Predict the structure.
Amino acid sequence: MKDTKSRIFTVGILVLAFWGTVLPVANAYIDAGSGSYIIQMVVGGALAVGLGIRVFWQKIVSLFTGRSRTVEGEEQQSPPK
Amino acid sequence: MTDPSTLSSSFRDPAGFLFRRGGVLYRQVNPVHQEHYDALFDSGLYDELTRLGLLVPHEEVAAASFGTEDAYKVIKPEVVDFISYPYEWSFGQLKDAALATLRIQKVALDKGMSLRDASAYNIQFHRGRPVLIDTLSFEVLQEGEPWVAYRQFCQHFLAPIALMAYRDVRLGLLSRNHIDGVPLDLAARMLPLRTRFRIPLLLHVFLHARSQKKHSHTGGGSESTKKPARNRPFTLQAFKGLIDSLYRAVDKMELGRADSHWVDYYAEAAHYSSEATDHKQELVASLIEQAAPQTVWDLGANTGLFSRIAAAQGVKTIAFEMDPACVEESYRRVKADKEENVLPLVCDLTNPSPGLGWANEERMTLQERGPADLLLALALIHHLAIANNVPLTKIADYFASLGSRLIIEFVPKSDEKVRHLLSSREDVFPDYTRDGFERAFKESFETERVEEIKGSERVLYLMRVR
């Protein structure tokens, strides 16, 4: 079952990857703003779910490890002296 | 009322503009930006970002005395010592600037605000750290709308960082040709196949580029574009998911160790005896002390050994080096040691940063950002004169336009490094002698001190521009 899911996921990524990268020849003077707007609307939901899962997972992990970690795992910029 | 002249780097922004008066830098806030400027303070965002060192602090001055008649506010920002540009940054610097932008956006979202632009030119390295210099970059969060600066972030940061990490570090210079960032379709074509399987890059570069192409004729503000927002708003969680995805995409990209023989230049140092190395460092320290500069530009700085001698004396030092690997190495040290006085930058002196943008005025040339109080040109002259055929008088003229004083090392033809340069080419440099060098530089500089480096045939000069 796990293998099947994994295969479906991999094939999905492959299809997306090639669909996304076989780009038609671009020319200058295009208005890139609309496409940037629309791609965010399209992927926003999935990214929101992804973030929710990561936040939830971090909370579970911190229950066992006792350490809280930022979702981004980022190095926090400390205030300057 | 005054008639402040707008700095050419800020004329595009209707929210306000930068201007100088009496040599002091000010920023005017126009009435159109009043709501957003006030919200920056009312939300606590200004205090939080300045506390974190992510936004350059400012003080308000009397708008009536400094701005135009309709000025809402005039602010005097803390001065950044040296304005540098993304095409002069190493991979690590561009990456840290990108992460700083995203951290700022995350803090802003928590305060009900958002960055309305994500230009890499709005970030500067101030005391060793990336900081946002455009106080007018914030707007009140428009509920249900996606990030208006998404395209700019991807073009200014994500695409060049990915190209540098996965293709070639020298592609950072692409930003010099594309002032509004690397076009995503171009980046998509240049990135290697394996990057298509990295989900963040797949989304934010490849599919983003495709979406731009597909909707290129839709029109940014048309009804057809706006419709999805009304039917299905872009939630705050989606916004945070987008920023988180971009953050992880940038954070995970690393630069492999570049194949550069310059990084080990000082470590190998076969051309110097240890006596000569030690003596040279002592002499350079002494000459800098004599010159007592406020600013030093170290030309051909390598990984910044001598830049740090100046920085140790409390001098603001810019370490220019043409090899991105050396600059990367130097920047890593800036971060590791929390150095505030050294700024390493990529710069090929034989083709320094030009004026760019509208009327070639939006981004300054290297020369326009000077002059420095003192230039260091150590172990450099033979690369310019012999490897690049630049006549000694031309070198002297250009140096005289970059700095008020100069510490320069003359490397004679008998030196191993020069012999190596001449081994594969005809010696067509009859004037490249100590006398010829002194004659050439005499036109532009007067010599203040001459020191021979023990254990070598090299000579150090301290000169002042005539």
Chain B is about 40% helix and 15% strand. Confidence is low (pLDDT under 50) at residues 220-230 of chain B. Chain B touches chain A through 59 residues (CB under 8 Å).
